[in-house]
Design goal:
By secondary structure, the chain is mainly beta. The protein is 6% helix and 38% strand. The strands form 3 sheets. An 8-stranded antiparallel beta sheet has the order 9-5-6-7-11-3-2-13, with no helix packed on it.
């Protein structure tokens, strides 16, 4: 007899996403890239950073750090999938100026530094340093509230409150990829 059922894991049903960077906050509609401004990538917000540090917006797991280190996929304890895309068209920088502070598969805490980058280099080589943070799996979202303060402090300012849809018997470990 099993002592604990794999499917009986209780998980959070709500996430509060804290700003991953310090800077001016923008609505997704104001991001100068149609993939983000038309919400094709997902529901979210963006930050125009004042410094080159990215922290985790939630407790959870760094599921994937992209090879070029310009984007991070984080899964919150509720199973909510979040992507932080550092700058616009930074993929073409091929990792130049980016430094990972955490690796794929690591457990992370809210406010924990995940990445550093040269803000000057991103401003010079990319379209923009504006960094979208968005929810990549719309089917997970029951309800979302977005806060749009003029400015956010990394690891401190709440930007989104998301109620995650219940999945009968589901656990974070059983969630599929987006």
């Amino acid at each position: 007899m099993f002592k604990k059922s794999f499917f009986s894991t209780k998980r959070k049903t709500e996430e509060i996403l804290i700003s991953p960077m310090t800077g001016r906050v923008l609505a997704m509609e104001d991001v100068p890239d149609p993939v983000f401004s038309n919400k094709k990538a997902g529901l979210g917000i963006a930050v125009d950073p004042e410094a080159g540090t990215v922290v985790s917006p939630v407790d959870g797991e760094l599921v994937h750090l992209f090879r070029t280190k310009h984007a991070l996929w984080i899964r919150g304890e509720s199973g909510l999938d979040i992507l932080i895309h550092i700058g616009l068209d930074t993929v073409y920088m091929q990792g130049e100026g980016f430094k990972a502070l955490a690796g794929s598969g690591e457990r992370v805490k809210t406010g924990q530094p995940l990445s550093e980058f040269s803000l000057d280099l991103v401003r010079k080589k990319a379209v923009s340093a504006i960094t979208p943070m968005f929810l990549i799996t719309p089917s997970q979202i029951e309800h979302a509230e977005i806060e749009l303060p003029d400015r956010a402090e990394m690891g401190v300012t709440p930007l989104m409150k998301v109620k995650v849809k219940p999945y009968a018997g589901d656990s974070v470990e059983r969630r599929g990829t987006p």
